[in-house]
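Hallway conversation turned thread

IA: we were arguing at lunch whether anyone had actually written out Sugar ABC transporter permease end to end. Turns out nobody had. So, for the record, here is the sequence (234 residues) and right after it the structure tokens. Reply here if something looks off.
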Amino acid sequence: METLPNWVKVTLSSYRELISLGQLRNFANSIFVSVVTTVIGVFLAALAAYAFTKLRFPGRKVIFYLLLITLMVPAEITIPPLYLVFAKINWLNTYQIQIVPFIAPTFGLFMIRQYMISIPDSLMEAARIDGANEWQIFWRIMVPVTSPILFAFAILQFLGIWNSYLWPQIMANTQSVAPLVVTLPTLTDPTLGEIPLYGTIMAGSVLATVPFVLIFLRFQDKFISGVTIGATKE
């Protein structure tokens, strides 16, 4: 069995330094913001998809197409006016500014709606005959039936929020509320000043990838089944 060269030393000092610099707080910030945004975003997207797919109301198609148009607007264009709005209501450098703007994802609405279209209306009609109201139909029938696409979108939503850099860098860059991806690049040697702590940054990057691996390993079957729906026809 080969041994490591004498000049190679395995150490956890970078992780200890990561903790001493308070990056565990930023790691916890990333988890909190990503989980809350994902849970609320998936729930609201599923509700909206159910309404646009199975309910009838005036202007349904027009409203849906207007929402789809917003997907064509680059996010960078909306940041300056949104910054001014959130500054006036004192939301800068808070958790809510990292959560609230992303809890109604149009892409999630479109993704889940396309799945719900394939669910026959007769399933809901039978539930209505049995006395179920709209909430019971949504929660007890639609959510279980659409669980593959809900899980698939939940993973995409979580990873999107976790990897988000531009928005929190501008809106929430203080140490107490900033996510890990914002604070890692700012780590510099306290003695030498501008020199980055490359070892600590790499340790933080490893820590930042742990949720990706755990989530995919745990839900890979649901994710793959969700994103491949419609790829084949019987």
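OS: looked through it. The chain has one domain: 13-227.
IA: good, adding that to the notes. Confidence is low (pLDDT under 50) at residues 230-234.
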